[in-house]
């Protein structure tokens, strides 16, 4: 009887082993299926391992990335008026605005006497022929007065010209001296007839000494 039982147990043991193996496989498959169904990690383990190795081999790369992010965050903190045309913040020293008073500018008005002025020079047989224009930064009333009193002003200009000698008008300084004297004479006439001069400069559009 004992031998028969041993034989039966020997026959049954391989079947039990097969059942146990199949059961284990089924359980393993169920476990994997449940893990996938529950949204397990789909990342590739090999890629994670390679990333860890790269971080260990190049620790400075991670620091540089972090510094770059910090630099971008700091750059975003600049004021709108400090940004360049592309909208980026400056990386160098910031400009300090300099407050300067605004210069007040005025329009200049010109007037040219028609024709020429010709007269003999003082103590000489030579004569001077010039064309004269005047300018001012006052309003148009000054030039209106000049145009209205042309007769008196032309007489004053010819009289002043005749008081100069050829030596007096020689060179740039001599011409400027004549221009300044004519300006004073024109303003004097205007002040007498209108109460205000206003002519600021005299210009020669032609200057001939013969």
Structural Rg? 53 Å
Tell me what the CATH architecture of the domain at 112-209 is.
2-Layer Sandwich
Structural class: alpha+beta
Total helices: the number is 6
The overall pLDDT average reads 76
Strand content: 5-15%
Taken from the alpha-carbon principal axes, the silhouette is rod-shaped
CATH third-level topology of the domain at 112-209:
Tetrahydropterin Synthase, Chain A
N→C terminal distance: 165 Å
SSE run: HHHEEEHHHE
Share of helix, binned: 40-55%
Biggest sheet features = 4 strands, antiparallel
- What is the H level of CATH, i.e. the homologous superfamily of the domain at 112-209? Band 7 domain
The total of beta strands comes to 4
Report low-confidence residues grouped into runs of 5 or more.
1-7
Instruction: Return the CATH class of the domain at 112-209.
Output: Alpha Beta
Describe the fold and architecture.
- By secondary structure, the chain is α+β, with helices and mostly antiparallel strands.
- The chain has a domain at 112-209: 2-Layer Sandwich (Tetrahydropterin Synthase, Chain A), CATH 3.30.479.30.
- The chain is 53% helix and 13% strand.
- The protein has 6 helices and 4 strands, in the order αααβββαααβ.
- Strands 1, 2, 3 and 4 form a 4-stranded antiparallel beta sheet that branches.
- Helix 5 runs antiparallel to helix 6 (171-194).
- The radius of gyration is 53 Å and the shape is rod-shaped.
């Amino acid at each position: 009887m004992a031998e028969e039982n041993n034989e039966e147990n020997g026959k049954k043991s391989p079947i039990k082993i097969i059942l146990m193996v199949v059961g284990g496989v089924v359980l393993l498959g169920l476990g994997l299926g449940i893990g996938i169904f529950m949204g397990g990690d789909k990342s590739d383990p090999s890629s994670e391992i390679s990333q860890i190795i790269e971080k260990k081999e190049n620790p400075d790369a991670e620091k540089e990335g972090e510094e770059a992010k910090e630099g971008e965050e700091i750059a975003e903190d600049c004021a709108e008026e400090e940004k360049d045309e592309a909208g980026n913040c400056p990386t160098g020293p910031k400009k300090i605005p300099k407050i300067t008073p605004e210069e007040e500018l005025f329009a200049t008005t010109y007037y040219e006497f028609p024709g020429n002025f010709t007269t003999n020079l003082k103590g000489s047989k030579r004569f001077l022929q010039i064309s004269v224009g005047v300018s001012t930064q006052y309003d148009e009333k000054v030039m209106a007065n000049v145009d209205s009193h042309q007769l008196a002003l032309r007489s004053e200009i010819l009289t002043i010209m005749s008081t100069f000698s050829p030596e007096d008008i020689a060179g740039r300084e001599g011409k400027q001296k004549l221009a300044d004297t004519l300006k004073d004479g024109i303003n004097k006439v205007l002040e007498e007839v209108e109460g205000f001069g206003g002519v600021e400069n005299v210009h020669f559009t032609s200057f001939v000494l013969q």
